[in-house]
Description:
Blueprint: E1 2-7, H1 15-24, E2 28-32, H2 36-42, H3 63-81, E3 87-91
Parallel strand pairs: 1-2, 1-3
Amino acid sequence: xxxxxxxxxxxxxxxxxxxxxxxxxxxxxxxxxxxxxxxxxxxxxxxxxxxxxxxxxxxxxxxxxxxxxxxxxxxxxxxxxxxxxxxxxxxxx
Length: 93
């Protein structure tokens, strides 16, 4: 089984967690986390006002939520690109 560890490269506080995960998870690989604010500024995502579905989403997504989703999406894409039957996705915290 393959393991994907989402990690924000400039987060030195979580480097110890990443090191520990690299030792215990099967076939681990570190995936760079997406910084949501940067993705929004670059126009990489189209944000909606939350009324596309019912019930409506009650508040705007934060840049952190956008980054978290895009980080997981990058992992899903890696699973597809590497033709993995499945993988464990974990965050560095």
